[in-house]
Each structure stands twice: as C-alpha cells, then as structure tokens.
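fwd from M.: "can u put these together and see what the complex looks like"

so here's what she sent:
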Amino acid sequence: MSTPVVMPQMGESIAEGTIVRWIKKVGDTVDRDEPLFEISTDKVDAEIPSPAAGVLMDIAVKEGETVPVNSVVATIGAAGEKLAAAEPGKAGGVAPASPVLPDLPDQPDQPDQPDQPDLSDEGDRQKSSPLVRRIAKEHNVDIGRIHGSGIGGRVTKQDILSFIEGGGTPSIDSRSARPASAPLAQDQPPVFRGAGDQVVPMSVMRKKIAEHMVVSKRTSAHVYSVFEVNYSRVDQIRKAKKEDYERAGARLTFTSFIAKVVVDCLRQHKVINASIDGDNIIYRNDINLGIAVALDNGLIVPVVKAAGEKNTLGLSKAIQDIAERARAKKLNPEEVHGGTFTITNPGNFGAQFGLPIINQPQVAILGVGTIEKRPVVVDDAIGIRLMGFLTLGYDHRLVDGAVADQFMSDVKKGIENFDPAQA
Amino acid sequence: MANEYDVVVIGAGTGGYVAAIRAAQLGLKVAVVEKQSALGGTCLIWGCIPTKALLEHAHALKVAQSAKEWGLTGIDGAGVGIDMVAVHARKDKMVSGLTGGIEMLFKKNKIEWLKGTARLAGKQGVAVTLHDGTTQSLTATKEIIVATGSAPRSVPGIDVDRKTIIFSDEAIHLPYVPKSIAIMGSGAVGVEFASIFKSYGSDVTVIELLPRLVPGEDEAVSTELERTFKKRGIKVMTGSKVTSAKSGAKGVDLEVETAGKSQKLSYDLLLVATGRGPVTEGLGAEAAGLKMDRGYVVVDALFKTNVPGISAIGDVITMGGPHYQLAHVSSMEGILLAERIAGHTVQPINYDHVPRCTYTEPEIGSVGLTEAQARQQGHEVRIGTFPFRALARARMAGETDGFVKIVADKKYDEILGVHIIGPRATELIAEAVMALRMEVTVEELIKTIHAHPTMSEAVGEAAHAAHGAAIHL
C-alpha cells in the first residue's frame, strides 16, 4: 500500500505551493506527522508533515518547483516495500515477465484526443520553453494558467498562442486593479553587473514581496498623514500593569495599546476597515488585524483574527503569539490571510516615521514611529514627554484626507486618554 | 489459438520492424509478415544504408586520389581506381550484418517473422501466403499494422527497363562504373547518386524539371549545391524536361527540352529518380474497405485508417497531402503507433520538425521552414548565415564548401528553420532538430556553448549572425 502525498491546500485563496526543501530523501523512513518537506506558499513557509508512516518511495516535485494544490508531490510506501522500478514500460531489453501495462481486452478503441496529457503529469504544468517564456513575457501572461499540451504537460508555443488569441491575456491597462501577474522586471532597463558582484536568485518569499509591493503601488493611490502622539499616559499604565500581564503570560507593550485603540477606532470608521472590489466597496464585518513581522530575510504579516472581540490582554497575547510563531516558521498559512487593516512598526529600528505600502486588498496601513522622550510644549512651558509619530498610509481611491485624519485624530486621542480600566 | 496475435505487422521496413519491436517491448504478442529474404526493407536493402556504404567508398577514393596533398606515400594518386566488386562485397557484408541484427532483435523480443505475402482478410484477419506456397490465417486481436512502404516510380512516358533505364534499386547494385549517366530528378536520391557516380569517375548529368536542384530545400542550399556540383564537373540541367528516353545502340538516347529548345543526348545509363509510390499490390486494401488516395492509405494523425483495427504507417500513408517518405519518420510513426496500441496516450508527430538529410558531397541537413516558406507564412524573417570556409575544423578537413543558415522570426526570436550544406551537415542538423522541438530561441542557441574546434561551431556562429554578426567573420 502506498500513500500519495499532495501539495496541501493551505488556505482558500492559495492555489499553488513551492517545495522549498525536502527534509526526507527517497528511501528514508518517515513516521506519520514527521516533517516531510518545507513549502512556501503565497506568503508563508511551512513544514508539511507526512500523512502516513512508511518509506519515502518517490519524490515527484523537486525543490524549487511550484505546483498546484492537490498535485501529488511524493509517495509514501509501506515500511519494507521495495523502491518502485524507475519507469515501467521502459525496462531494458528483456521482455517483462508480466505485461507492465494494464490489459484492456475489449476496450474498443483508444481515445481519439491525442493531446490529452497524462494525469500523472498534472504537477508539471509549468514546463515551457524559451520561446514560450519569451512570448509570455511580452504578453504579460502567467504560464501557470495555461494548459500544456506537450509531453509532461509542457506549455508549447501553440498553447500560449491560442491562450493569448482566446483573450486569456489580462493586459495591464485594462484592469489595472487586478493584474494577473506582475512581472518584476517589466520594462526594467538592463542591469549591469560589475566585477565581483554577487548574483543570487531571489527566494520565493522575496519574489512574492517584490510582486506584492509593485502590485500595491500600482493598485492604490497612496497618500500619507502623520500624527505625533504623546505616549506618557500609556507608559504609566504599562508600568503599572506590566506584572499583571506577565502573570497572565503576556507582555504589555506600546503595540498592545496602539492595537486596542486602532481596533476601537476602526469600529467607528468603517471605511478604513474596507476593500475595493471592482466598482464595489466591501465594508468588513470583522476587524482582522495584520501585524508586520520582520524576518531574517523578509517580512511576513500574520493576522489576529476577530481582533475587535479582544480586550487589551487578549490582543497582547495574540500579537505575541503570532509574532513568535512567524519568526519560528510555525504559522498556519491561514493565519496570514484575511487581514483587514495592518500595523507595521518601523520605529522598532529607530525610524521617526515610515511611509508603508498598503497590504492589498486593504485600504490603509498604520506605521508606528520610534517612541522616545522629546521636548514638547506643555502649558507654555517645555516639558519632557514620551512621544512618537504615527503614519497612516491610505488608498485615496476610497479614503479621503478628511476621513483619514479624523480616524488618526481619534487614534491619537484614544492613546493619549487611554482608560486604565481597559488595560 | 496458435495464429492469434495482439498485433500483426505487414512489412518489415523501418516502420514495420520498429513498430513490432516497440509493441513487443510493451508486452504485446507480435507477428510480422515480410516477403523479402531479409528484414529492414527499403532503407536497409536498397536505400539509406547501402548508399551510405557507397558514399564512404567515394570518400576513401577521394582521399586516395589526393594522396599527394595529404602527404600519403605509396599511393600513386593519378592511378587510383575503384573495384566495384570489392565495393559491393563490403557493402553487402555490412547490410547483411544489419539485417541479421534485426532478426536477432526479433528473436530477443519473441516476434514471429512469417516469410511471405499478406492480404487483409476480414475483421482482424490477415491471410499469409508463405514462400513455400502454404497459407496461414492470422488474427490480430488488437491491431493490424500496414507498413508496406514504397517503391521507385517513373513519370508518364518514361519506361524503365531496369537495364539502361534504371531505378535506384538497380543503381545501388550496379557492378560497374558507367562511363556516363543521366539522372532524372534532383531530389535526395537523384543528387546522392549524382555525387557518388561522379566520385567514382562517371560523367554525370542531372536533369531537373524545376528551376533548381533539391527543390524542396532552401534556395540558398540549392544554389550552393549547384555551385559545388559544377565545380566537381557534374552537369546540371535545371528547368529541363526529358521528353523521350529510349534504349539505343550505346545505351540510352534522350530528348531533353530546356526553355522550349529540344536537344538529343546519349548516355550509358538513365537513372530515373523522380519519386516513389505506395506499395499495396496484393494487400487487398480496397476489398478490406480501406480509404485510399492515389494509391496511398489514408490515415489520421495517429495512423488509424477508416477501418477499425487497421492502422498504417510509413511511406504507404497519406494524411491528406504529401507525406515524408523517410526512414526516421516511419520508425517514429511505428513507435508511436505501438505505444498507442498498448494503451499509452500518444501525441501526433509535428511534421514541421522532421530532419531532412541528403548525403551528397557536400552533405545537406535541414529542418523547419525555408526562408521563402517563412516569408510566405508572414513571418518577419531574420537570417543568420555562417560559411564553413571561416571555420578552423572545416579547413583542417579540407571541406570548406557550404554554410549554416538559420531562418528566425524577429518577433519572438523563434527559430523557424535551419539549413545546413557542408561537411557533417547530416549530423549537425540534430542540434537544430532539438532546438526546434524544444522551441529554443536564437538567443538560447547563441548562449549554448559549442565545442571548439568542431563543425558544430558553425551553428552557434550562424545564430550570432542572425543577431547581428558572427564572431569569426
């Protein structure tokens, strides 16, 4: 008995995954739920456990290859089972003892469609050719969307030409809001390489970030508002409540307060917690708060789901949990989807304020600048207060300046007048 | 039942015997009916293989004749001759080694060879008349494969007596070197024999109805072949029609019309190389209900005839138009058909990617569209040509005639065709065939490293030329 291992469907919006690394080799023994391979999907990296105990018989998708979800990527055989012969039907000169092919005695005729690819090759959809890639680049076509009629599902010249002829090509200007794919190097002038320069292929995550950032810039009309906020009050509350939180297994940080206030304000300003879909506006029922987390070689935005239903302690715990698991690559891919508003914290590294790019399909993002003691005017005198800048990046297609500033004004007030009973 | 097989193949040429082996490899029980005394058909017995033997002899002769230039001692260049009896003995030995090899492969794959003729007999039935006069009825439970091939064919008004007016079948076994020979038709067969006989010392005239030699090839190739032929002393009469051919006192008397002017010419021999026609005599194709077109068996892209259970491959088929009559096409068809019968999903052949090889001196290898075809199909054409005279390896070999020509499309940098005339052209074309099949761009070909010093560098250089300029020109 052998068990096929498939590319898991890691989230409803995830159509494909890339095998980043095989943790086990062909021939290795695996236990059920033992990590088998590492994948990278839209945004998340995850280790995928083996669905069965046995021996890894065959790896069908190599490292670095991207396949649609539910494609068979490997086969687990029963312990002790022999490795399958490399290719049935191609066994050397000697006639096999028993026919390798299923005997189809009374099957009247073989199917007429000659270009029907083997189902087993489903996973190799992305095979193409230099010519096809060239045509794809010129027409901004995602080859993965084309049915390949060649051997092993290779997308041939004929396939891509009929795809384009059939109107499959989404041109950038016609529906700029949702480009099917965003080639990174589009119209990019040639890049010179100097002696000693190092050329390193991008990681999957880096490519995705690059793609998402360009898409967002092209999609939204980014505008920014910057507010300066006095954190002295929340700092006092933080010091007073810190130990209570620690006892509860949480850390009370400035982000906890900001998140709580933002959630409350989003409830009042529904247009900030929204999306644009074609000619429609979607006002979100839930507030799902994205928290940008810097990783060693990238960035990820896990989401605190139903943040609107959480108190400050609950938010603190949730943020802490997803941030830790993001750094440990232990996120469930579902946890990076469905955000409705994002908070990012460039101030962590000392920035006075940042001008963050909106995380699509959201319409606004809050950037938290560094929080530090500054001289401020207090009742016609100069005092020292704990201050920081907050930046709202918003999509002017939906959010006008007045609305954004009212939201930010409420956030500022909420932080500066934080009710200790809420903490 | 003793005479029941999965597959019965009629004809053991390159199409039939390859289909049989592939089917057997896939676990099918196979019988082959072949009337000749050896397996291998036209290719092995009268065509590709023996002509290549004659070609190699011609090459050996050429080296010996220019012994002085090569610094060979002990050979008197001027007095070097060729003994056709020895030539044929070596050739026949090679050929029987190869046909015997197929017999071995049949045994190894447990394929039954019935030595006789076959006739289609009802559903799944093949009636075989063995050479000893006995008959056998075979049943093919899965498929009957018609692979009966082709034979040389003349044109109306020219009667081939197989003595002074001959076909390639006779030319290949000619036990002497004719003093003079006229060759009608300048397709691959015609020009190959022209090249061989000229090397052996015959006075050779090629008569072609169309305005240029090898009319199927790119025009530049035709021009280069004509130039080298004339340089070697082969007479070329293009745009000329043989209006009469009669055996005469000293051989054959011809009347040839060129541009409205008729002239009488005499030669020892006339080789008629005007093409090949299908062999279906005695097959009972019509009686079996097979749809035919001008004598060819009509098949679809996966070689099915209109009669369920009967498929056909090779020179005997048509898919609606002219079909390549080439051994390597037949064998690929045989492989695909066997796989189809065994239940594999197979894809039709892309006949635009068939390599065409002509073993003249210099050789010709080509694949894909000619420049004229590409322009006719509306491509914005980009051409890259590189002559062998600029190539170190070609100079060392003393074979500097010819060139590599790449026909590409400007828009996507697609390689549409590659046309090679020159040393090893028939080997060099393999890279181009792969390039077309894999849909390689000219840019990719440029970035492919070609070993130095080799003839194949000319391919890389031609790719460079297509993008502007070759390095060594």
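replying to her w this: The two ends of chain B are 69 Å apart (CA to CA).
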